[in-house]
């Protein structure tokens, strides 16, 4: 949080001398000294002195001078009516915002109106519609178990705008981090001992005491039975709820948080942060914002906010129970075939409001009359939905029909009580309908009769007095009056009392008129008060039904999510996946003509590819850069995720196992855009996979090992592949530029090669994007370099170097010893693998270039750049044609370049230096 919090120094120092209003401002700032206090004055949220300067700077507001009897102060005001964008800017700048609102009616107090902080706005606890995206916004807390026997952590999360609150245990910090990646909180609270916990979310300091066992337990017991939770879970969720309460004004439990639940991440397909990122489920890797290039964007055809959030949750946590998955598929199948039904349902749902957030506003006593009408309008949709679903056959749809309770009484109550188009304000009348409340009706008729009496008065008095131009009027200051022009003053009756003198006329009242006036005013005021009371009663009654309304909201969201998946499913070439598990668990994962849903949507000429992965198999995928390796692997990952979320998939057919986890790792240099790609991180991620992957997992490795020298990288890639094959036995796909790795296919039954080809015409390369069996023969690195614009002399020189080193390698190869027995090595790895990343013990042997001489001849001896580098002398393996000193220097330069830590600009400069080196020869 920013440093500009607490009261402005000057004001705090001179508090006693200040005007009562500024004193109050200082006090509120003092009470919320970790937040930026916005102080309601009239139609503005005001700030003063250095805080005003900060606000003016961030919000681009003009700083004004405020003068009173005690001095002149800088002030900045945010207009209350369109505060949203300013609040957004302040949040973005890292501020926590405390809204100090007037809590007394200015017309009823003499002196200064009392103000209290009614809401604290933080990135994770925003509840105002104007500030909220329709997506879920979570604040999370992570707490370590500090008890004697303790181990592990707990992760709790809450969406304050909907009341969705849950907690889970994580055995390790790493597991906690992964869980957080799935939650994707907008804000994170760190428990007392959770220091040095590096995450990408804004973290917030929060009261340590709130996380103390007893305090947290007590807090939680106001929501649910704390007995259901472990001690560390209780501390996490209890502390988090305290924070949620604090942000909502801090008086007592949040009624609408009625569903505090605990869950086990293993109840769903687990996608860790790296998988969510690299599969681009919700975020495009190019940047953070949703930009039309994610899986979510492709499958999101929801028509209301409830469905949108539900669908997002389904993709974040796909199912792992075959029955549940197939139940969704059956519903999606039925809805995708019944076009009319589907469109009717979507049409109806599209007028549903965001019931979850409405209910939470109702419970927080923030809902106005319009909100209640929105609740009723949403309830009005339900009978049509259930009627439309009456012939549904899929059990999931039938069940959903049962879940959609009509709550007819609630709707009738709101519709009979609340005016159809009520005003925004709830204190100024016009919100309760006639006929709803006897007392209100009486008061209103008194008011009406009074006004009618006044309206008739003019005519009456004209007749009575004979003054033809006598007028009856009303103004703010003097109220009702009878106006008589000066020429008729002598005709005025005795009981007229003078009220006001004008230039050409006098204004009068009569005792009867004054009585009526009091009656009218009293009745109007009384009516407003009554309306406000009735409104609050109705709102409280709706709040009492919060549970049922939330259940209905969930049902509506589910229906919308199913309809969305069904709408996508009718698209060309989407199919219903089938599943196998248990007895038939030996069957392969099999996809025919699969497509990458996101890439294929943008590229109509997308080339479909099939996939077949038996249990325990490893597919090694080679091919030139840009040939489609990454896309192909991600397409398999996305199809698996989508299928288990309940969706149809972009393929001709898909027969799938139920997968427990999808791991994806992208090698450091492929991830350079992320900025933080170090080899260390790559390796620690690899470690996680080797630890956590099971025989039911899908592991997608993309160029892993790239962040280090070729020798080490290849060794690690090989050892990891062997381990995944020999020990883990899940399904693995490994896209690699280490051509040498392809030899593993000859040694292990489950390892096989796939490759992508490119066609070479003259010096140009065309990518076919078609996957074929067997290893790639060449990776066309130099052509790609040429296409990318590397200057011709460098390209030519590279060709020459390749030819030389190919000749050398071929000689080398001929001299190499036959492969050694593997059993002993494998045993050694087995014992080491669970503890540490696989050691590069056999690196020395596997680094040697193994390009087949015959292949070389056939392809013109093309090699990848790493192979060129590798062929250079490093002391251990003198090649046949010893390179010149300059060549050696060139190669050494290349070798020493830490790509992961080089900026594009540096890289360009280095490239130019290298080019110079070549040209100098
Ligand atoms: P690699 O990982 O082999 O370097 P990518 O998977 O990143 O290659 O693909 C490079 C580009 O090729 C993608 O951005 C995409 O535009 C295109 N591409 C990939 N696969 C296909 C395909 N099956 N059909 C058509 N275009 C494809
Ligand atoms: Mg790639």
Structure description:
The protein is of the alpha/beta class and 921 residues long. Helix content is 44%, strand content 17%. It has 32 helices and 29 strands. The chain has a seven-stranded mixed sheet with strand order 13-25-26-27-22-28-29, sandwiched between helices. The chain has a six-stranded mixed sheet with strand order 3-4-2-1-5-6, with helices on both faces. Strand 3 (64-68) and strand 4 (71-79) form a beta hairpin. Helix 6 crosses helix 7. The longest helix has 34 residues, at 511-544. The relative contact order is 0.06. Residues 287-291, 669-677 and 813-880 have low confidence and may be disordered. The structure holds adenosine-5'-diphosphate and magnesium ion. The site of magnesium ion (MG) has 5 residues, from helix 21.
| Number of beta strands | 29
Beta-strand content: 15-25%
**Helix fraction?**
40-55%
Q: Count the helices. How many?
A: 32
Bound molecules: adenosine-5'-diphosphate, magnesium ion
Q: Name the average pLDDT.
A: 83
As laid out across the biggest beta sheet, the strand order is 13-25-26-27-22-28-29
What about the largest sheet? 7 strands, mixed
Unreliable stretches, pLDDT < 50, 5 or more residues? 287-291, 669-677, 813-880
Task: Using the CA coordinates, give the radius of gyration.
Answer: 36 Å
Please tell me what the overall shape is. elongated
Q: What structural class do the secondary elements suggest?
A: alpha/beta
- N/C terminus separation: 58 Å
Please outline what is shown here:
With 921 residues, the chain is an alpha/beta fold.
């Amino acid at each position: 949080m920013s440093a500009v919090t607490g009261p402005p120094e000057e004001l705090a120092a001179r508090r006693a001398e200040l005007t009562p209003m500024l004193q109050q401002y200082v006090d509120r700032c003092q009470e919320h000294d970790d937040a930026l206090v916005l102080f309601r004055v009239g139609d503005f949220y005001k700030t003063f002195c250095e805080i005003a300067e900060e606000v003016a700077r961030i919000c681009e507001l003009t700083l004004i001078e405020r003068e009173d009897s005690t001095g002149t102060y800088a002030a900045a005001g945010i207009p209350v009516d369109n505060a949203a964008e300013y609040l957004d800017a302040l949040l973005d700048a890292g501020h926590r915002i405390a809204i100090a609102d007037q809590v007394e009616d200015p017309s009823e107090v003499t002196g200064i109106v009392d103000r209290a902080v009614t809401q604290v706005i933080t990135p994770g606890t925003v509840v105002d519609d104007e500030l909220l995206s329709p997506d879920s916004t979570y604040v999370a807390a992570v707490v370590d178990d500090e008890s004697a026997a303790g181990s592990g952590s707990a992760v709790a999360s809450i969406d304050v705008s909907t009341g969705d609150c849950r907690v889970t245990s994580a055995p390790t910090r790493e597991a906690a981090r992964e869980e957080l990646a799935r939650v994707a909180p907008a804000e994170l609270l760190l428990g007392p001992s959770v220091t040095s916990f590096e995450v990408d979310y804004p973290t917030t300091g929060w009261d340590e005491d709130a996380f103390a066992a007893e305090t947290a337990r007590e807090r939680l017991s106001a929501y649910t039975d704390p007995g259901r939770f472990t001690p560390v879970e209780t501390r996490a969720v209890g502390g988090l709820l305290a924070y949620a309460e604090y942000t909502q004004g801090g008086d007592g439990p949040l009624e609408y948080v009625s569903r505090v639940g605990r869950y086990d991440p293993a109840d769903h397909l687990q996608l860790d942060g790296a998988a969510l990122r690299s599969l681009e489920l919700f975020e495009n890797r190019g940047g953070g914002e949703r930009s039309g290039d994610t899986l979510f964007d492709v499958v999101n055809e929801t028509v209301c906010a409830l469905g949108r959030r539900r669908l997002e949750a389904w993709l974040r946590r796909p199912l792992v129970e075959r029955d549940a998955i197939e139940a969704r598929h059956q519903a999606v199948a039925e809805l995708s075939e019944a076009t009319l039904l589907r469109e009717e349902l979507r049409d109806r749902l599209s007028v549903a409001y965001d019931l979850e957030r409405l209910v939470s506003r109702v419970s927080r006593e923030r809902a106005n009359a319009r909100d209640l009408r929105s609740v009723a309008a949403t309830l009005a949709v339900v009978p049509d939905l259930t009627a439309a679903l009456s012939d549904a056959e899929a059990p999931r749809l039938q069940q959903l029909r049962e879940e959609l309770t009509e709550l007819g009484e609630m709707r009738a109550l709101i519709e009979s009580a609340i005016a159809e188009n009520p005003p925004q304000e709830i204190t100024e009348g016009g919100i309760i309908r006639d006929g709803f409340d006897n007392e209100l009706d009486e008061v209103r008729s008194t008011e009406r009769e009074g006004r009618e009496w006044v309206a008739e008065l003019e005519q009456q008095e004209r007749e009575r007095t004979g003054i033809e131009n006598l007028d009856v009027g009303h103004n703010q200051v003097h109220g009702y009056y009878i106006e008589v022009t000066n020429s008729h003053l002598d005709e005025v009756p005795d009981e007229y009392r003078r009220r006001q003198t004008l230039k050409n006329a006098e204004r009068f009242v009569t005792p009867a008129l004054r009585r009526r006036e009091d009656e009218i005013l009293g009745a109007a005021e009384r009516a407003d008060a009554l309306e406000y009371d009735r409104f609050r009663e109705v709102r409280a009654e709706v709040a009492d039904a919060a549970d049922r309304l939330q259940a209905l909201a969930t049902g509506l969201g589910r229906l919308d999510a199913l309809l969305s998946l069904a709408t996508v499913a009718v698209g060309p070439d989407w199919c219903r996946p089938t599943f196998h598990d248990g007895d038939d668990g030996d069957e392969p994962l099999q996809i025919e003509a699969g497509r990458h849903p996101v890439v294929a949507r943008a590229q109509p000429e997308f080339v479909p590819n099939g996939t077949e992965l038996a249990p325990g198999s490893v597919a090694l995928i080679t091919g030139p850069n840009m040939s489609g390796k990454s896309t192909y692997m991600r397409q398999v990952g996305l199809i698996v995720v989508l299928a288990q979320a309940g969706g149809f998939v972009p393929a001709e057919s898909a027969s799938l196992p139920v997968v427990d986890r999808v791991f994806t790792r992208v090698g450091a240099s492929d991830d350079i855009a992320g900025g933080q790609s170090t080899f260390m991180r790559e390796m620690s991620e690899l470690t996680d996979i080797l630890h956590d992957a099971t025989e039911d997992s899908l592991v997608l490795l993309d160029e892993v090992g790239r962040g280090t020298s070729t020798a080490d990288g290849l060794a690690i890639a090989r050892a990891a592949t062997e381990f995944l094959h020999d020990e883990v036995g899940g399904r693995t796909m490994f896209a690699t530029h280490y051509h040498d790795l392809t030899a593993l296919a000859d040694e292990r039954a489950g390892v096989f090669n796939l490759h992508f080809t490119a066609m070479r015409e003259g010096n140009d390369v065309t990518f076919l994007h078609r996957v074929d069996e067997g290893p790639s023969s060449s990776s066309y690195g130099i052509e790609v370099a040429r296409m990318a614009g590397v200057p011709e002399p460098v390209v030519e020189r590279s060709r020459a170097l390749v030819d030389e080193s190919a000749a050398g390698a071929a000689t080398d190869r001929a001299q190499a010893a036959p492969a050694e027995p593997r059993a002993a090595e494998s045993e050694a790895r087995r014992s080491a693998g669970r503890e540490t990343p696989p050691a590069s013990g056999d690196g020395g042997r596997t680094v040697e270039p193994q390009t087949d001489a015959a292949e070389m001849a056939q392809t013109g001896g093309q090699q990848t750049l790493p192979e060129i580098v590798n062929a250079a002398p490093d002391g251990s393996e003198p090649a046949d044609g010893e390179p010149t000193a300059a060549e050696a220097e060139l190669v050494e330069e290349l070798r020493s370049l830490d790509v992961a830590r080089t900026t594009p600009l540096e890289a360009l400069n280095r490239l130019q230096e290298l080019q110079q080196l070549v040209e100098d020869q």
